[in-house]
Specification:
Peptidase_M20; metal-binding; Aminopeptidase; binds zinc ion; 462 residues; single chain; M20/M25/M40 family metallo-hydrolase; 6-stranded mixed sheet; alpha/beta; Alpha-Beta Plaits; 19 strands
Amino acid sequence: MNRLVIGLVTGMLAFSASAGAKELKPSEVEARDLFKQVVEIPTVEGRGEVPRLVKLLSEKFRAEGFDDIIVKPHGETETMILRWKAGGTPIAKPILLMAHMDVVEAKRDDWADDPFIFREKDGYYWGRGSVDNKAGMTAIVMSLIRLKRSGFAPKRDIIVLFTGDEETAGDGSRLAASEWIDLVRAEYALNSDAGGGGFTADGTPLGYGMQTAEKTYRTYTFSVTNKGGHSSKPRPDNAIYELASAITRLEKHRFAPMLNETTRGYFAARAKQEKGALGDAMRRWLADDNDGEAADIVEADPKEVGLTRTRCVATKLAGGHADNALPQLAQATVNCRIFPGVDPVAVKAELEQIAGEGVAVEQSDSFGASTPASPLRADVVGAYTKAIQKRFPDMPIVPSMSTGATDGVFFRGIGIPVYGVSGIWLKIPEDARAHGLDERIPVESFHMNIGVWEDMLRELAG
Ligand SMILES: [Zn+2]
């Protein structure tokens, strides 16, 4: 998951999540009970539990009359695809709804409580996956069920794609966007695993981010080989020194700054809020794309790092074979997060330039294709904005680019735009625990998210 929370501050009235426990409505009890079952199935890679979750969800859906469900096993995991057909002749191409069923490992000893025992405490639902991404997944299930029970008939097909390995291999989404594309082809996708909002501890709204772009993941290896020899006879050519020089050049190198529709919208919103040097730099850069100096100031800020350009960083190092021998091989791993739409081949060429002669640069890992930012469609932006602002009037909705990668990358890669439109809000920074310890979601946020999805689907498929 890649939940971006932006640093916007508005004049909106403080919102309080600790207003005391409210009595749940029967529909909310049903959602909580499903959520409890979902969280308590430990869908961690290697435990083989995803099929049990698929079975639970399939039974829940079938009981409501959703019977077009296809389960695709792959490896130890499964991908689930459901289609809710349009009531009559579809008025448009389908909408794809995305979530992932797997979670990151969590160890009982590290957590305050068992991560796979669902708990309600202090206004929160606790458990591994409560934020990433089981709340979003449950919201898709419950919103479809509520829509169907209310008599709603979609005017276009709604397709659900639940993957079982987003946190690891990403095969579910990759296969869905290739081999199984006929089952999931859509006009665009709404991803529950990205986007969302934040409040400070005192209830000041930080805004909602709508994820419309993500950077491309590539890993490269820098290798220097040398004939080696006895360390009592050092020579000017040395694999470790050569590699060190290359890495030092990489450290100093800055790729060209870039803006796209998403980051332009994001920085325009940020510039309104930032006073001082950072805000000035944002305004200067927005006024002149070529003002690299201003972009460098923005990039240097910890909140904005990675948002202005491609970034590559050394992450691993290895070399030499004996204390008393000249190294025959020295290698560094360089992980890149490439700006949307930039060809990784061009990045590799730039890395070769930086590394210099004598340093071999090879791509060693990749995830998805380089994808452009998804266009800010008026219908999707409008439906999301309306659903959020119905609950939080004046809440700013700002396009966002993830510096990491999600399941969405495979669909953007085949020209299907993807929008991270989670309705979840968290208190920042204390609830930012995805992949971490004692993961939790505010009770009100969990239930509100279901309503957000229901409203968006009424608007977009009604
Ligand atoms: Zn996730």
